[in-house]
Amino acid sequence: MQDAILAMLAKEPSHGYDLGLRLRRALGPLGGSMNAGQVYVTLARLEKAGLVVHERSAGSPDRPDRKVYALTDAGHERVTAWLAEVNRPKPDLVEFHLKLAAASASRLADPVELVDAQRRELLRRLAEAQRAVLAEPEGSTGGLLLEGIALRLQADLRWLEACERVWSRRADA
Amino acid sequence: MNVLQVRDLTKRHGRKHNLVRAVDGVDLDVPAGQMLAVTGPSGCGKSTLLNLMAGLERPTGGQVWLAGERIDTAGERALARLRRRSVGFVFQSFHLVEELTAAENVELPVLLAGGSPRAAKRRAGQLLDQVGLADRARQLPWKLSGGERQRVAVARALANEPLVVLADEPTGNLDTAATNEVLRLFADLRAMGQTVVMVTHDARVAATADRLVSMRDGVFVEDTWLGGGSGWLDGLFAMGD
Amino acid sequence: MGRLLLVSRLVLGDLRRHPGPAVLLVLSTFVATAVLSLGMSLPGATERLYLQTRAATAGPDVVALAPGMGGATDAVLTSLENAPGVVARSRPYRQFFATLTTGGGEARAIVLGADAKPGPIDRPLVTSGRWVRPGGVVVERGFAGAVGVDVGDRVAVAGRTFPVVGIAVTAARTVYPWAMMGGPGNGPSDGAGLVWMTEPDTRPLAASGLPVTSLVYLRMADPADTTRYMAFYHDTPNSAGGRVGDSAARVNSFTWQSMAHQDDVYLRDGQPILIIGGWLLSFMAVAGLSTLAAGRAAAQARRAGLLKVVGATPGLIAVVLLAEYLTLALLADAAGLALARLAAPTIINPSGSLLTADAGPHGGAVVMTTVVAVGVAILTAAAPALRAVRANVDRRPDHLVLLSRMAGWLPVPLLLGLRLVARRPGRALLHAGGTATTAIGLTVLLMVHAQPRDGWDLGGVTLADLADDQSRRLLAGVTAAMAVLAVVNTLTMTWTTATESRATMAVARTLGATPGQVTAGLAAAQLLPTLPGAFLGIPLGLSLHWFFGPADQPPTPLLWSVPPVLLLATGLLSVVPARLAARRSVAEALAA
Ligand SMILES: Nc1ncnc2c1ncn2[C@@H]1O[C@H](COP(=O)(O)OP(=O)(O)OP(=O)(O)O)[C@@H](O)[C@H]1O
Ligand SMILES: [Mg+2]
Predict the structure, then answer these.
(1) Are residues C75 and C161 in the same domain?
(2) CA distances from C13 to A127, C5, C17, C290 (A)
(3) Strand partners, B38
(4) Burial of C265 by CB count in 10 Å (0-12 exposed, 13-18 middle, 19+ buried)?
(5) Nearest CB neighbour to B99, from listed C504, C506, C512
(6) Are the beta carbons of B82 and B74 closer than 8 angstroms?
(7) Could you tell me which chain B residue has the CA closest to the CA of C412?
(8) Chain B residue with minimal CA distance to C421?
(9) Contacts across the A-B interface (CB distance below 8 Å)
(10) Which of A49, B74, B207, C87 is deepest in the core (most CB within 10 A)?
(11) How many CB pairs under 8 A join B and C?
(12) Would C277 be classed as within a structural domain?
């Protein structure tokens, strides 16, 4: 969540309210369950960590006195690192999804490349798991666990294929 | 040494509005002993690439060398000889000769290559034993299960000790158990140093290869080296503690 | 109603997708039923035509002829009105033994002095032009056709030139060239045609001393009962004090029944040709169609499987298959009968001397050919229908072990060919049978053509022997039909084998078989059953020929050409699809 909000700010400084809207849009139907307060709490935490700063904008007539948040240099660094990072045990679906959305919005990274990098990593793992599966004699209990790992990796890879299809079409459009 | 070498290979179907670039300027080197997987979405040109590399189809442009011999310009007889001696094929739909028993199917390439019936018989027995089907040798294909049929097909592909085995979706018609049977066979081939190029869209199958190229709309978009474990699995168990 | 729609939709869909087999089915059945129905409509055909002509021309029940002219002869003839059963007679007419000269030459002719207005008995039917008038003659239609004269031509009768004013037919004469009905002095007959002219025009003939015979036409109380008359007239006293029939002034009587049978001479040879030919053709049709059906069995079984999946009952599947073949067979049968009807007049009335309005296949022949056509359809559809209905397991016959074992030691093309044959022994038998049938037809044809031919001597000109001509023509027709079916069958068989082995051959090519090897394999698969079939057909054809034709005729050396020709044709026909298939890229062939 923190990283996602940081990445959203990378595009341009925003109000907390706009950030909430953008997050919700990226999450689609699942975004409905996110409450608005969460964004402000997170922003406050990030500010404390020195990753964002805020300034008051000249209040517009209808909604006066609003804070506009922007990234600090440290915040920028953190976003770049997050986007480049793939080496997690397995992608957290929501996080990865938000990462792709943020990457696309901020233009700090190409979502398709992010997917590819993630896939390469998963493939390497799958290769390892699959070889281990095949090395086990048929019907061994040890093989069963490996089979489970391989199947999960396979499922993740399938999802990544779907991600790639959609994001590369976005890029073309 | 490269068993297969492909340069700027192109295959187009149709013209104008119906123009399909099935393969669109592909370069590829397959060194001896490598197991290469080609993946990609349906219709991206995988089968076409494989067929071009075996001379089953003629390219629109580019060159293919098989064991140092140019095959895109070779005549039908030369191609037949190459297929007989240097290439073994495994297809998604098995393509066993329905009229022949399992053993006779495996004998066929040996006989075609001019081997004596005795030699053919010996070789078939040996290969069927290797794929674990010694007891089904006299069955006609339609009496065998899908996995068994594909193992016969692999045995047949190996009959003349080919330089390269080309496999097009070898597990496409099989369930998980039968897929593993066939993949074990491929793992054995890899261990024996057999050069293999296989086309698949199943990540688990592709993951058994040393190297993975991804195709998209007739071009290669990625070339990944899968060989050598990263120790990730061990790490996983360590974390589990 | 919905079911009917479903069945017709399925049938039409299949026909649209596979028009080739449907065309072959219709063609084979059509040829076979046409020939068979012709053959079957021959018995009694001429008699029917004669009766028809007799009704149209008020034909006499008996024609009595006595040599010479004048009182004594007339007295004998007129006295016949007292014979038992006779209720009426015509006046005595005279016929002169003369010649007819046309541009083509001189032929024997009987010149009959006719009434300008025919009497109640024998009123010849003018088929073109008009009846005799002073100075104009009418020529009998059969004769006119043979010597090639038409209305408006000028002919010389006994040296005097007349215009031909009409062409006519009559039931009072046996058909051309038997118009003489007894030679001069009631001696033996020669071939001759009939010419009518007015009584006054015949006077110069009488004056010139040409041989003459007088005749009367008799009408019986019961036309069916002419035997009493025939028994009687031999006992009639004649003017010379002897007996009518064996006296000096002999009377020679022809009943209408004997005249009706005379025409049969033409058809005596033709009938077996047509009937045997019809059966041979039917057999060939069945052979070809079974191959066709067997070739499509796999596709039909798959289709039946699909229908089953969506809930069709086995009965419905059988109905769909049968409906398709039955419709086509009945269509072909109707077309065959129509052709027979068109061809019948020339075949059963080769002389043209009879009316043919009512020629063509009748009840029995129609029923019989329809039964044959339906039988062919059922035979063709039964096997796949049964297989489709019974189970969806695709059972293949276990191979002939010996053949397969042998194949292991042969060159690769032969190996592939032998294996293909060994897997489908039934198909190979059919192929051999079809080839044998073709060889039989060719053998009979060659033997008949090797016979010496005689023509008919009509005095100055020798006209073709119509009966012999007729059987040759029929034989040629049957042979042409056989040739068509043989080509169709060979095409079917090569096509079936080619499609069935396409997958096998494509796989063989991925394993490194050359296009040449694949082509040779396919050709071998076809030629192997052709060989015994071609050789078996010759002795069978010879025995057939000796049974129906001259038994002492030695086999002509030309027969040796039958097997090579058949092998060559099969080889060529099978190489073409194989070569075409080999030209396609292997990937394409595999995907097909
Ligand atoms: N004979 C042909 N005529 C026209 N187009 C063709 C022909 N053969 C292949 N194509 C087209 O070429 C493209 C590549 O086909 P190919 O069979 O190589 O795909 P693939 O990657 O093997 O797909 P799949 O994974 O579904 O087997 C497809 O778009 C296909 O429609
Ligand atoms: Mg494919």
Answers:
(1) yes
(2) 50, 12, 6, 21
(3) B199, B213
(4) middle
(5) C504
(6) yes
(7) B112
(8) B99
(9) 59
(10) B207
(11) 85
(12) no
